[in-house]
UniProtKB/TrEMBL annotation:
One Gene Ontology cellular component: cytoplasm
Protein name (record): Ribosomal RNA small subunit methyltransferase E
Residues of the Ribosomal RNA small subunit methyltransferase E PUA-like domain: 15-60
Catalytic reactions on record: uridine(1498) in 16S rRNA + S-adenosyl-L-methionine = N(3)-methyluridine(1498) in 16S rRNA + S-adenosyl-L-homocysteine + H(+)
Lineage: Bacteria, Pseudomonadati, Pseudomonadota, Alphaproteobacteria, Sphingomonadales
EC number: 2.1.1.193
GO MF entry, a single one: rRNA (uridine-N3-)-methyltransferase activity
Native organism: Sphingomonas prati
Keyword terms: Cytoplasm, Methyltransferase, rRNA processing, S-adenosyl-L-methionine, Transferase
């Protein structure tokens, strides 16, 4: 369970709201039950339930289980897609291990506003489910131009290009990287030119078929992880 507060040995915590409801009413945990907690800073801890009531659960932190995990330095830059699909994208990006997600505004992006809290809730749920002790950062919706203008010299930009490019095996270099996935309508020719003008950009292919943006994201992140994600 993720807690948005720093955890420490022997700390006593009182949870209310959804966290208390989840432990007390959904899982029906009783005093003495053990729960794993993480805080995105100090790693994972074991805690024991001291009291469990409908609206409040108290816990005592008993043991440090592991440090916050090192996360491969991969950013995912993706144009937001419609609701159910972007929720899926958050979940899979978190499970597959990305460090940072940047929703990108492009000419053909169909969504121009994001519910940051809802998307972050999906990241937290996915982290809890897959045992991540570090949450991915979630940036605000950022225009593609703004990202490209300030592109860091040391970060490889792998641009998923449905018109063809290098294979991941050929393209991936050691070190910080980002994968850029376009919107369902693809990038405009001008956007393609600005992406290609970045010295650190490499066009990569995910095969001969046109994948939906969410499929392209999962395939690209999995391929990068397989080549560089230790
Ligand atoms: N509108 C485009 C078209 O019809 O040609 C397709 C865009 S595709 C649905 C969405 C994004 O997924 C693309 O911008 C690209 O980043 C990525 N993508 C899809 N298929 C891909 C492939 N085979 N190789 C690399 N990237 C791909």
């Amino acid at each position: 369970l993720f807690l948005d507060q720093p955890l420490a040995q022997d700390a006593h915590l009182t949870l209310d709201g959804p966290a208390a409801n989840y432990l007390g009413a959904v899982l029906r945990l009783k005093p003495g039950a053990q729960v794993k907690l993480f805080d995105d800073r100090t790693g994972e801890w074991l805690a024991e339930i001291v009291t469990a009531e409908r609206r409040a659960v108290t816990l005592a932190v008993t043991r440090h289980l592991r440090d916050r995990e090192p996360v491969p330095d991969l950013w995912l830059l993706a144009a937001p897609i419609k609701k159910g699909r972007i929720d899926w994208l958050m979940e899979k990006a978190c499970e597959l291990g990305v460090a940072r997600i940047v929703p990108v505004l492009t000419r053909r992006t169909i969504v121009d506003r994001l519910n940051h809290d809802r998307l972050r809730a999906h990241l937290i749920e996915a982290a809890e489910q897959c045992g991540r002790t570090a949450l991915p950062d979630l940036a605000d919706l950022t225009p593609l131009d703004t990202l490209l203008k300030a592109w860091p010299d040391d970060r490889q930009l792998l641009f998923a290009d449905e018109t063809g490019g290098q294979s991941f095996g050929q393209a991936v270099r050691p070190g910080p990287a980002a994968i850029l996935i376009g919107p369902e309508g693809g990038f405009t020719p001008e956007e393609r030119d600005s992406i290609r003008a970045i010295p650190k950009a490499t066009g990569v292919t995910l095969g001969p078929r046109i994948l939906r943006a969410d499929t392209a994201m999962a395939a690209a992140v999995a391929l990068w992880m397989a080549h560089a994600g230790d």
